[in-house]
Amino acid sequence: MATKNSASPKKSAGFQGVRHAIIIIIFAFAVGICFYLFFLGNPANFANGDAANGHPLNMLGTVYKGGWVVPIILGLLCTVIAMSVERIIAISACSGKGNVTKFTENVKKALKDGDIAKAEELCNKQRGSVANVVLADLKSYKEMESAPIKLKEKVATIQNAHEEATALEMPTMTMNLPIIATIVTLGTLTALFGTVLGMIRSFAALAAGGGADSMALSTGISEALVNTASGIATSWVSVVAYNYFTNKIDKLTFAMDEIGYTIAHTYEDKHPEA
């Protein structure tokens, strides 16, 4: 029976991510509401300085006329931006201090030369999630050299150590990404909701009839289009951010798996079963 590996990777150095995302969300919505009230709603953006009834003089005033759905969409947009900054810092810490591709090649070369100490030295310099996983693999590698079990069980134990170490590092890399993924859909749905509200107002103005309702008609159409545009823009930013971070994480996990496979394969080659 294979011995259970008790090794665990070192805790990643640097920023680990914001675990209580609700703090970011509340702050982002507060910024969005303030932006809507004090920047878009600035009296200078409206005729006669009347934000409530005055005609918009520029695009800022037009966006303000989009109604109460606009600050919600702005809050979602601010959340995506804040989460993106948080993920950039966290994933950079996970990558370590140097180039991951170069680090991977250097570790593979050290393993090919049979220099485990050199590989560990590279990990200690690199740090980050990839280095932590490799360190756990190397620790298991050294433990298996003196373990009284068969070769296949030793290789399996090294592979299990790799999987366990990877599983411990993944939450740090993927933290808060589901929120960005949710806003991809939520931004579009909120835009659709605002658009429907604007069209309801427009049709209500048409039903009333008469030239006196032309302002209400134009306001309703403006509200619908502003909400559509702002919601689509929010979803666009969310999609780009989510795909960018997913790609970065895929590259890191690929580097982990590549080195993990190399370590297990190296052990098997250098310790042929009698």
Quickly describe the structure.
By secondary structure, this protein is mainly alpha-helical.
Supply database-style keywords.
mainly alpha; rod-shaped; 9 helices; 274 residues
Q: How much beta, percentage-wise?
A: under 5%
Which term fits the overall shape?
rod-shaped
The structural class is mainly alpha
What is the multimeric organization of the chains shown? Answer: single chain
Gyration radius, rounded: 28 Å
Please trace the helix and strand order, writing H or E for each element: HHHHHHHHH
Number of discrete helical segments: 9
Strand count, sense and barrel status of the largest sheet are: none
- The percent of residues in helical segments reads over 70%
Uncertain stretches: 1-12
What is the CA-CA span between the terminal residues? 18 Å
Q: Can you count the beta strands?
A: 0
Kindly state the mean pLDDT as a whole number?
A: 86
